[in-house]
Amino acid sequence: MSIPKSHYFEAQPAVPSKPRTVRLHLADLDLELQADRGVFGSKGIDAGTLVLLKEAPAPPPQGEILDLGAGYGPIAVALARRAPNAHVWAVDVNERAVELTRANAAAAGVANVTAGAPEEVPAGLEFDAIYSNPPVRVGKAPLHRLLETWLPRLKPAAAAYLVVQRNLGSDSLARWLGEHGYVVARLKSKKGYRVLEVRAAPSQA
Ligand SMILES: C[S@@+](CC[C@H](N)C(=O)[O-])C[C@H]1O[C@@H](n2cnc3c(N)ncnc32)[C@H](O)[C@@H]1O
Question: Is the pTM of this model over 0.85?
Fold first, then answer.
């Protein structure tokens, strides 16, 4: 029997579950996380995710932080550990990923993560920071729509940190953001990934 084709960004992955344990090892934390088939990075922590967690600035100590496209939660759980007095929203369209993030946050002993579908984030909530390894493989137009949905929810002067592979269009994404009202800084280029810092451009008024 052939295994149905599956994408990591489906609400309910078609591939059967096959849980596995992966290790998130950083200078300041060392965690075992549960991953699964049908969820991004199921074979181990993604190289881009590691670059983001090593190179992006520390999260704000308090306030509301968004992990956009949380997968099984490596970014959300690391942010929650690093900023225990902040609240981390971990959103994903993939229900298997959301369940894993909840379980991984509980296993890591962090109570300041809320994992859920994007629509579960209260309307009107604004963020002190956004961190994301965004779902580039959904395609350019859906990726742009996703960013157009969430970036305007940054508080004034707050920043989003996005990690994007250079050969998956980090530079053209930076250009597009620049053309759509954002100031983009390339914070780091490492192992084929760029970490972009994105802020709303100051208003001209
Ligand atoms: C590149 S993966 C990163 C996963 C995880 N943050 C990590 O670092 O391993 C991007 C994630 O975005 C999710 N995603 C795709 N479309 C989305 C959407 N419209 N809203 C929220 N998450 C989405 C995918 O399901 C996937 O888990």
Answer: yes
- Whether 133 is in the pocket of ligand 1, judged by its Cβ within 6 Å, is yes
Ligand 1 in reach of 13 Cβ (< 6 A): no
Give the C-alpha separation, 146 to 135, whole Å: 9
Interval 54-97: pLDDT, tens: 999 999 999 999 999 999 999 999 999 999 999 999 999 999 99
How would you label 183-196 residue by residue, b for 16+ Cβ within 10 Å and e otherwise? ebeebbebeebbbb
Structure tokens at 91: 């959103």
CB contact set of 48 (below 8 Å; sequence gap of 6+): 133, 163, 164, 165, 193
Superfamily of domain 45-200: Vaccinia Virus protein VP39 (3.40.50.150)
81 CA from centroid of ligand 1 (Å): 20
- Would you kindly state where each structural domain of the chain is located, as residue ranges? 45-200
